[in-house]
Write a structure and sequence with these properties.
The chain is of the alpha/beta class and 246 residues long. It is built from eight helices and twelve strands. The strands form three sheets. Strands 8-9-10-5-11-12 form a six-stranded mixed β-sheet, with helices on both faces. A four-stranded antiparallel β-sheet has the order 4-1-6-7, with helices on one face. A two-stranded antiparallel ribbon has the order 2-3. It is globular and about 45 Å long. The structure holds adenosine-5'-triphosphate (ATP). Adenosine-5'-triphosphate binds next to helix 1. This is ABC transporter ATP-binding protein.
């Protein structure tokens, strides 16, 4: 007979953690030609994977392939156990992605962008959620501005805010630190870490060792071969551009 589950010497078995992302021998590239080594990893909820490596190593190509925006040269990616298909409702409901700096409607204001994303994902208290994210991203005064009247950093904040006004169990960010000032980088990194600790799965491409150190729970260094690393090894590798730093 099993012992009581609140016995500290015989804790209840923790439920098996499911993979949110599972990459199996994934090769990413263009026109059938791989741009980097073969990627295999798994990512659970409450884990954050940093993808690091030099310019042109293949980080963006890998993450775009992982989320179905590019066709894999070979190998597979499973998200929540299903082969990646970014057209399915499940995928669109669960996965928030911020890649492109020009992914906005020129004629819509900042708050209209956020309202469309929130409403499209069935968020109930849209106005409250938007007000909160405008404040977090320092865009309250720009709520009625259109993207071309924003600075490049403010546009970046708007695109990031759009990922936070909607539900998400997997968040994928390509160099979120780009064009953010130091204070905003720190605020964003702290928030992401808190969300990861609360259950979010995060994949992030970054060149910022401090951002990585705050956010990541694991890392891979992308080059012709792929090296799994601890976050501190990856932060050192970025800082020194030495993939084998320890
Ligand atoms: N659309 C494309 N068609 C063909 N080759 C591409 C395309 N986009 C990128 N590449 C090439 O693929 C390689 C990897 O590019 P990628 O953008 O994935 O690198 P990265 O590691 O994200 O670099 P960075 O740190 O500079 O953002 C590069 O050699 C790049 O020139």
């Amino acid at each position: 007979m099993s012992k009581a589950t609140n016995d500290p010497k015989n804790p209840a078995p923790s439920p098996a953690r499911k993979d949110v992302v599972r990459a199996e021998k994934l090769q990413a590239g263009y026109s059938g030609k791989a741009v980097c080594g073969v990627v295999s990893f798994s990512l659970h909820s409450s884990q954050s994977l940093a993808l690091v490596g030099p310019n042109g190593a293949g980080k963006s190509t890998v993450v775009k392939t992982l989320v179905g925006q590019l066709e894999a040269v070979s190998g597979t990616t499973l998200i929540n156990g299903a082969e990646v298909d970014d057209r399915t409702l499940d995928f669109r409901r669960e996965v928030a992605v911020v890649f492109d700096d020009d992914a906005f409607f020129p004629s819509l204001t900042v708050e209209e962008h956020l309202a469309i994303v929130a409403a499209g994902h069935g968020v109930g208290d849209v106005e409250e959620v938007i007000a909160s994210e405008l404040e977090f991203f320092g865009l309250t005064e720009q709520a009625k501005s259109r993207p071309y009247n924003l600075s490049s950093g403010q546009r970046r904040r708007m695109l990031l805010a759009a990922a936070f006004v909607r539900p998400r169990s997997l968040l994928v960010l390509d160099e979120p630190e780009q064009r953010l000032d130091t204070a905003m980088r720190h605020r964003l990194a702290s928030r992401l870490r808190a969300e990861v600790d609360a259950g979010l799965a995060l994949m992030v491409v970054t060149h910022d060792p401090d951002f990585l150190s705050t956010v990541a729970t694991k890392a891979i260094f992308i080059s012709d071969t792929i090296h799994a690393m601890t976050p501190s090894q990856a932060a050192k590798a970025i800082a020194s551009e030495n993939p084998h730093a320890d």
